[in-house]
Amino acid sequence: MSGFSSIVGQEKPIQRIRTFLQNQTIPHALLFTGIPGVGKRHTAVQLAMACNCHARTQDRGQPSRVRQSPAEPSASAAIPCGQCAACRKIKSGTHRDVLRLKPSRSSIRIEQIRALQDALSVRPHEAVMRVVIVSRAQCMTAAAANAFLKILEEPPAETLLILTAPAAGDLLPTVASRCQRIHFSPLSRARLAQLLVQQIGVAHGQALTLAAASGGSYARALAMAENGWIDLRDWVVAQLAELSQAGPAHILAFADRLAQNTAKLQDIFEIVGSWLRDLLVVRFLPEAVVHRDRCEELAALAVKSDPDKLQKGFAALGRAQRDIQDNANARLTLTALMLQLAGSGRGADQGSTH
Ligand SMILES: [Zn+2]
Description:
alpha/beta; Rossmann fold; Zinc Finger, Delta Prime, domain 3; 2 domains; five-stranded parallel sheet; 16 helices; about 5% strand; binds zinc ion
């Protein structure tokens, strides 16, 4: 799959972009909003290709943004071809007039915007439409955002600026208001699960779980499937089940293992959180359960669980997450959390550590 058809689950934004191309009414600045992994950057690259694709520009005869005949939208505008020199250069990131900015470390700095201003002050080398893609534009420092605002206020000719950010409110209002906003929604669980089944052969129940746990992010769900997230989840859940029966030595050993596994710690927190939440909601809102492939087991466990203790466990999890973010000792924090969760796993008739 190539071109805009390679962007899945985003029919509305893609239709708007196709209309811009067909009517040759591409705005000077676009802001693509939405959670990570829903196709914003990929769409920006496809749009840069479509603006410069030789198949399209040769067909039109003249490469202007200005529409010549409003009554005759180009029939071939719904490309990029993906094959011509321009498309291939843009795809591989080597086109000199398609400039990509992203945070260096955690922010987009004023120096990066100044370098961009310099690049935009000269005529394009080869592009029909020069395209600037600013990924995670919310990471612009205040100075960078103000410098970027100058570019937006006096946009260079034949240049398209595309910003991506989670939401318009994450940018300076003066920057956001000068861009036409296109929102990329999270994919619905059903749609994302269907894609995972069709594209990478994930079993249906697990696909539903990945769709829910990824929050509707296609890229995240794919990465989770490929990185063995289901296996990690099964391991964490098995450990949680053992906690309530385990003695202190086992609990300490488990906390130690988690503390050493810093790369997976965020995933593990999310798994524990969604599992506890599922135990709370499965009886009342089964359709809201994240771990859909283990729904029956959740329902059986929920009957034996004390909602009050589950809620306390859930709160303790949030505190531990914050403490570790604030550089608290991971081993001590996780040990306290696991002792709390060991209590949460016990029914109302069993003992509790709290
Ligand atoms: Zn092409």
